[in-house]
Amino acid sequence: MRGEPGMTDATRSAAGSPIRLAARFARVREAHQSELAEDYVEMIDDLIAARGEARAADLADCFGVSAGTVARTVQRLIRDGLVNSEPYRSIFLTPLGKRLAEDSRARHRLVRDFLLALGVSAEAAELDAEGIEHHVGPETLAAFSAYLER
């Protein structure tokens, strides 16, 4: 850590031990892994609400990815118990997937509303909330909520 560019002694001290730093990185990696699942279940839920079904081709169009990428992700979501699907059929959320979509949407709204309360423009708040929502812990979300309730 000593030779890292831009790190002062105070920054190094605040970062803590290598073990504490590793734990922080692990939390970020975990957030990145759940981010994809959350985005997919939200989009599946939105597609079902708008069109009555969610198809792999629709997901590929929405996310701008290949059909193969969607297929791999949907297989992971099936493995994790978030969706049900059969080859060449629509994709449906399980109760666990529906709950994840709702929780993710609620986190997004809370983060967006907090940013708006700080004076961030609506467009920037919407865009930034999409990234922040996946990385904010329960304590921070509770603080956002308490701030908004004042």
Automatic annotation (TrEMBL):
PROSITE patterns xref list: HTH_DTXR
Chain's role: In the presence of manganese, represses expression of mntH and mntS. Up-regulates expression of mntP.
Domain HTH dtxR-type: 34-94
UniProt keyword list: Activator, Cytoplasm, DNA-binding, Manganese, Repressor, Transcription, Transcription regulation
Protein's name according to its UniProt entry: Transcriptional regulator MntR
Cell location: Cytoplasm
Cellular component annotations (GO), alphabetically ordered: cytoplasm
Coiled coil: none
Principal cellular location given in the protein's record: cytoplasm
Subunit comment: Homodimer.
Classification via Pfam families: Fe_dep_repr_C, Fe_dep_repress
GO molecular function (one): transition metal ion binding
Organism of provenance: Aureimonas glaciei
Family, similarity comment: Belongs to the DtxR/MntR family.
